[in-house]
What we know:
Layout: E1 8-14, H1 23-40, E2 48-56, E3 59-71, H2 82-91, E4 97-111, E5 114-129, E6 134-140, H3 156-177, E7 182-183, E8 192-193, E9 196-197, H4 200-203, H5 210-225, E10 242-249, E11 252-260, E12 266-270, H6 276-294, H7 299-307, E13 318-319, E14 324-326, H8 329-338
Antiparallel strand pairs: 1-6, 1-7, 2-3, 2-4, 4-5, 5-6, 8-9, 10-11, 10-13, 10-14, 11-12
Amino acid sequence: MITSEPIGDWTWDVPPNPTAARASTRALELAVAAWKVLAKHELALPVGKITLSVRAADDMSKTLFGREGLSLEKDPLMPGSAASEAVAQADALKGDCITILQMQCAGFWLESDGKHRAEKLFTIQVDSWTAGPATLTLATYSDAWLTIDLREREQFAIHAENAPRLTAALREISELVGGAPDPGDPNRHATPTETGFEDVSEEGPAYVNSWGTFEIPARSRRLVSTLPSTGTDYPNVTDSPVRFLRVQRRGETLGYVWASLANEAAGYEPRNAAGDDAFEAGTQWLLRLREACGEGLVPLDALGWLAELPPDPDTQTLIDSAVSEAPSLDALEELSGRY
């Protein structure tokens, strides 16, 4: 399963280096070095996004410089790349600053039928202080490293294919920075260790069905938070089978607009493997569902109306006209988290 919130993370402390590059360049260099380790194991690909923020050391609420959505190119350190130009501007700032650089990494997880790609398999974050220390944090959004998935099903073959890749990457990053990581705290999904995760089949999961208990409500809250507070919405839960259409951009499925066959509910499920784009697209299609609800259309009619609309001008997404059905909303939610 692919999640919208981290399943686990690891943090390395990087000691001060007075002769090192300035804070922002150092942050990019550390992030790229970790990214190259992940890429060696196909856990990261030369695509993705970089976010850069520089804040005053004495007032973290004060942002001095920021860039979002920088392209993660083949060589982000190359002069003239979007990332290198942004860090050069950030390094020109005066005074004590803290650079926070986050890199979103696409990558592959393996199953018996081959490779599957997630646009946000890992994130790398570096917090770098001017002439001071830095921290490097790696977070994962996949349960492919676990012996039991987030719905409590054994997946020993998937674990055997993927966990050694993660372990190798963690060890190589530790060699790179000169020390072992501090594993993140046990969470609702899993317990990180220095070399991966505890064996859930031995320890037992912290929560029953953490996917349904935590991930699905978290996704819903994230989507609702992007909508205006006023408006009429369909109920977004149902016990009946659902009919759904795929929201696509350039052939990639970003999510699923659905309506219950009982005609009492409708909504949108983001495809987690598409990353943050799945949520950005969902906002616009939920607004269109809200419009249909306000016009008095029943959910199945609303679904048909959406299928006839032109591409959304903001997200450049459209509805694939191929209609599918799922035996339950739960089944569609699982589909949205798997592939």
